[in-house]
Every structure is written in structure tokens, then in C-alpha cells.
Write a structure and sequence with these properties.
6 helices
Length: 272
């Protein structure tokens, strides 16, 4: 089973750029094209939040159009740049999205169970797993305590050393860690928000952060340094599940890169 995770799309209205610099819409088109060229195809794609940039319905309409060519089944999550009301107006027919409240849901039709959490706090950059959200997750984890499970959430609940970004990580993280540690079947807590590929051990499992399919956040590990945009290559994560080996995560960079055969040294096409 292959799960593609794209994150931090930051889709703009037509003709606009993020920060006046980054053509996020064009970069998303490139990401979708590359996902469509993958062999084998992903079984599903999870977009782990910050689907748009300014929370407008016009941006969600643009997002809908940009995502339309994607071949694999797609599941969307909320980030701090999202708006539940505008999202539901533009995507009213998604069967996995509850009609009101948090955009939490569970996918049980795959070899790995997928739980998607909504950590959005309206008007804030940080996320939260408050008592209500935590109770929902506890109920879902108890339903199948032995099936391999991946939890997707936008805001990482763990520190990463990116001090400027760690300030906006998910709150309620101690209670969340206590809960997840009780379920060794949780194979991964897969996040977004930080615009970098990051891995750590947390709550008895692996915590990971997917890079952005648009711009990245500069790797600044010193104190008192505000986040900065850096045009490192966009990328996404591929989570590969096999009963024999468990869950393995790969970082796939987006773009046209020169490739050569190790045997013949001749140029080859990666996505023939």
C-alpha cells in the first residue's frame, strides 16, 4: 500500500503569488502531474492542511480545479490557513467530511487505518488537541486497537528545533502523547505545517513532518530567528506499507531532474 502525503499547498486566487513571490498554484500543478506519473500509483493521497492561503471561497474553487486531474483518491485535512465554512461550501459532496464541527474522519477500507485530525484554531497560527478533540480520537483508537494506524494532523505536536515554528505547534500535546503511547499500533503521526521533511521519536512512535509542495521554511536552528521562505525543491512524502516490513517513508522531490543509468551511464527517463 502506498499513501502519498502532500502538504501546505497554499493555493492562491488566479494570478496571485504567496508573499508576492511563490507561484503556489503552478507548483501544485507540477505536484499533481508527478503524482499521476508514479508507478505504481498511490492507493490514496492525503493533503495535510494549509490547502489555501487566505481562507477564501475563491481559493477553494481554485484548489478544486487544480486537484481535479489527480487520479488517486484524495482526502483533505484542515490547517491554520484553512476555513471550515468556506471549505464545506466548495466541497459539499465529500462523503468523509462531517457536515458540521471539526473535520475529523477515519478511513477503514485500507490495510492501514487512517485517522485524520482537525487541529485548526480559527484565527490562530497554532493548533490544538483540546479535550473534545482528544475524546474523539480516544474513541476512534479504541475501535481497532490492533490494526496498523497512521494519524494525520496539520500541526506537529512535538518540538523540532525550528524555534520560530515550534511556537505554533499543536497544543494539548502532553495529553495527546499520553493517549497515543497506549496504542502501539499507531505507526506514524504524520504532520505538515513546518514546510520541511522532519522525523523524530514521539509518544512511542515516529513523528514525521512532510515538506511543502510549494515553498519550504528555511532551516534556522538558532534562537530568536523568525521563519523565512526558501525556494528549496518542493516535495511530498510517500508512506509505503508492507505487512513484512511495516511502514517506510520516502521523500519524493518534485521537478525534472537529470537521471542516468548506473550500468550504461546513459540518460534515462524517471517517469517513462
Amino acid at each position: 500500500m502506498i499513501i502519498a502525503q502532500i502538504s501546505d499547498l497554499h493555493v492562491q486566487p488566479a494570478g496571485q503569488r504567496a508573499y508576492g513571490i511563490v507561484d503556489t498554484n503552478h507548483l501544485l500543478e507540477a505536484a499533481i502531474a508527478q503524482l499521476n506519473r508514479l508507478q505504481p500509483q498511490p492507493d490514496l493521497v492525503v493533503a495535510s492542511g494549509d490547502l489555501v492561503d487566505e481562507r477564501t471561497e475563491a481559493e477553494y474553487e481554485m484548489l478544486k480545479a487544480l486537484l481535479a486531474p489527480l487520479r488517486a483518491p484524495l482526502y483533505l485535512a484542515m490547517g491554520n490557513h484553512d476555513n471550515r465554512t468556506a471549505f464545506r461550501h466548495v466541497f459539499p459532496q465529500l462523503p468523509y467530511v462531517p457536515p458540521t464541527g471539526f473535520v475529523h474522519y477515519v478511513l477503514d477500507d485500507y490495510p492501514v487505518r487512517i485517522i485524520v485530525l482537525d487541529t485548526l484554531v480559527d484565527g490562530e497560527g497554532y493548533g490544538d488537541m483540546d479535550a473534545e478533540r482528544l475524546a474523539w480520537l480516544q474513541t476512534q483508537l479504541a475501535v481497532q486497537p490492533h490494526k496498523p494506524t497512521i494519524i494525520f494532523m496539520h500541526h506537529p505536536p512535538f518540538a523540532t528545533g525550528l524555534l520560530g515554528m515550534d511556537q505554533s505547534r499543536c497544543r494539548g500535546n502532553e495529553a495527546l502523547a499520553h493517549l497515543i503511547a497506549q496504542y502501539p499500533n499507531v505507526q506514524r503521526v504524520a504532520c505538515g505545517h513546518l514546510h520541511r521533511s522532519i522525523q523524530t521519536m514521539w509518544a512511542g512512535t515516529v513523528g514525521s513532518v512532510a515538506p511543502s509542495v510549494a515553498h519550504q521554511v528555511a532551516l534556522k536552528l538558532a534562537e530568536a530567528q523568525p521563519p523565512a521562505v526558501v525556494m528549496e525543491p518542493p516535495a511530498f512524502h510517500l508512506h509505503l506499507w508492507d505487512d513484512a516490513t511495516g511502514l517506510v517513508t520516502h521523500t519524493a522531490f518534485i521537478g525534472e531532474f537529470a537521471a542516468y543509468s548506473c550500468q550504461t551511464k546513459a540518460a534515462i527517463a524517471l517517469y517513462a
